[in-house]
Each structure stands twice: as structure tokens, then as C-alpha cells.
Design a protein that fits this description.
The chain is mainly alpha-helical and about 90 residues long. About 65% of the residues lie in helices and about 0% in strands. The chain contains three helices and no strands.
Length: about 90
């Protein structure tokens, strides 16, 4: 679990850097600053997606798609581990 957490954190940071780099000067871009990209990434990874910030460039959208899929996968993993703690363990003798 720790490895997955580290991986998603590094991926989150990398995607924020990439998206800010390709979006900050885009003519119709909404993501202009570090706070913008962090807000967008948090709402994206948690699947809230308010729609106030979104990438408009192709590389930004590809990075966003990767963040969506990996965020959903990570959240599913965390919730699965948490839910497993409620399931009684059976002893097989």
C-alpha cells in the first residue's frame, strides 16, 4: 500500500508540473498558476470535477486522463483495503 501511495503522489506532482507547463500560456486556458493546477488536480483525482478548471491543450488533456484513471484506481484500492478490515477472516483448517 505504501508503494501505491508513493507512486500516486509522485504521479500527481508530475502531472501538475506538466499541466501547468502546457496550460499556463494557452490562449483559452483556465489553468494559469500553481494554485489553479493544484485545485484542478484535487478535484480531478477525487472525481469531483467542478468544471471551473480544465486543460484545453492536447498534452494537458492526456495528462488529465492519466490523473483521472490513476486517481480512481488508487481510491478504489484504498477503499478496498479499508473495506476488507470489516470482513471477518475465516480460518481454513
Amino acid at each position: 500500500m505504501a508503494g501505491a501511495t508513493f507512486f500516486i503522489q509522485m504521479l500527481f506532482i508530475l502531472i501538475c508540473i506538466v499541466v501547468l507547463h502546457v496550460e499556463h500560456d494557452a490562449p483559452d486556458g483556465k489553468i494559469r498558476s500553481a494554485s489553479d493546477v493544484l485545485w484542478w488536480a484535487m478535484t480531478t483525482v477525487t472525481t469531483v470535477g467542478y468544471g471551473d478548471m480544465y486543460p484545453v491543450t492536447t498534452p494537458g488533456r492526456i495528462a488529465g486522463a492519466i490523473l483521472m484513471v490513476s486517481g480512481i484506481g488508487y481510491l478504489a484500492t484504498v477503499l478496498g483495503v479499508f473495506a476488507q478490515s470489516f470482513v471477518p477472516q475465516r480460518n481454513h483448517h
